[in-house]
């Protein structure tokens, strides 16, 4: 963990593009609430095949204008052309966006043509070729390994390719076993990969939803957590209280072990992440924030 312990702490929050006017208003309220914490940045997800991708840019620009927080749009390349990606990059440059999360993404249902990009490292390389150092590029990391990876070693090499292509930092898939993160970082250090690897944190508020997400993305819910959540049935208050305790302890273990910050998957809600933040007594001095590895000039 030596590569991570030397880094300043960077805290961030992820949103998804809203689909209705009411949802947009709620997201704006959420982003303004979390802006009071002086986060290093927000990220906004990118729907594949047009499902929400057209709303990503407008969400990014709207949040940045209303909060003043640096916003990093997700950009996935599967099913895209170089011309399409070039247009998106130019649009972000025109709006003063200098931070991206570069991903492969999933193939949209019914689409057979993968497009001109097969892997995220190809997207990272293309962004660097087209825009130089304009963008600070985050990539994804998988402490429990990508569900489509043929082996842990292959998955680690895929991550290495993204770093070598020009990634500046990484955000991990969420997980509940801190040893998975510590082991992943140790393995990265053995490959001389020296960049911030920030743990992704998923607050637990709804067991059915969490189980569905986890099954889809390959994130393991430890048996003892799964069984406790199942035992609460429809007792939402107990699920949230237990989930808050579990995730708070996870975050504390990660930070004590040297993690260079936390990236919260908010699901567009402020309260669950805010509760964990307060439990940890976290704070970011604005002057310190401006000096972090995630803050752009």
CATH architecture: Alpha-Beta Barrel
Q: Span between N and C termini? A: 27 Å
Strand and helix order: HEHEHEHEHEHEHEHHHEHH
Number of strands: 8
Describe the oligomeric state of these chains in a short phrase: single chain
Which bin fits the share of residues in helices?
A: 40-55%
- What is the mean pLDDT? 90
Radius of gyration: 18 Å
Strand content: 5-15%
For the record, the CATH class is: Alpha Beta
* Count of separate DSSP helical elements: 12
User: What class do helices, strands and sheet pairing give?
Assistant: alpha/beta
Strand order, largest beta sheet: 1-2-3-4-5-6-7-8
| Global morphology | globular
Tell me the CATH topology.
TIM Barrel
Largest sheet: 8 strands, parallel, barrel
Would you identify the regions where 5 or more consecutive residues have pLDDT less than 50?
287-297
- Domain count, please report it: 1
Please explain how this structure is put together.
This protein has 297 residues and is an alpha/beta fold. Helix content is 47%, strand content 14%. Strand 3 (71-76), helix 4 (82-94) and strand 4 form a beta-alpha-beta unit. The model is unreliable at 287-297 (pLDDT under 50).
